[in-house]
Amino acid sequence: MKIGVVTFPGSLDDGDAARAARYAGAEAVRLWHADPELHGVDAVVLPGGFSYGDYLRCGAIARFAPVMETIAREARDGLPVLGICNGFQILCEAHLLPGALTRNQHLHFRNRDQRVRIENATTAWTGDFSAGQEVVIPVKNGEGCFVGSTELLDELEANGQIVARYVGENPNGSMRDIAAIRNEAGNVVGIMPHPEHAVDLLTGPSVDGLGFFTSVLKAITPGRRTTTEEVPA
Amino acid sequence: MARVVVDVMLKPEILDPQGQAVAGALPRLGVSDVASVRIGRRVEIDFSGEVDLDKAREIADKLLANPVIEDYTVRVEQ
User: Fold this and answer.
1) Which member of B14, B21, B63 has the closest CB to residue A102?
2) Domain of A128: which CATH number?
């Protein structure tokens, strides 16, 4: 099983995401923003950081990277994609997830261990959790406040598309305490806290984050996808 | 200069914490009669040839603004 991790100019957490994929038992494949080829990966992680310097809006420019065009197409065809922090922002900008992420209400960058409740365990990335389970993973963002219209928020609630919520103090003012959402199909998940930083007790507050990466390995059907690499010329 | 100006503002219903922070600082300047401040972005696009307003609108809609949270106006600068 291969999990691809994209590196954009300004990505920070690609190394940790690749490590988390390896801890889960996958082969981590590094993908490059300027290369549209996905190199046969079975799932993709868009890591945290400040792609393209967060210029204009977080994720606004990364959305147009060559690799994102392929990912957007494959995601609509069922490719599991997890966007973490800046990756979540990119998924919203690319319209693979609804809503938008805006400046933290208190204007402060917030970096701390955060308790979140898994609300939906049916996605490609949360199958190893149970609904209602609480986990502790680090949050570190300046623009993590999820916003959407009341209609959108109601729709997300009704469809079970809210994947995780903050427990205790909301770190960024996110509407309805949203920490993670999914698309309708459940293969695309965006999460603001960082599961890849909670896979090793030496460096993280827990190993709760590993569940996101082990979940996707069970959700992947090997050989389901063909890549352009495998298509005869 | 074949210039188009795009103004991007957060939609009225979206909280603007930057604007609030600025409004909160105004009393320190002795200003007490400002009801609210909202912060947006002005983008100047200089075409190398003739102004292409349709192209400018596309740039604004696809890249400069996120229509989920922002409104924009596009105009040719006289």
Assistant:
1) B14
2) 3.40.50.880
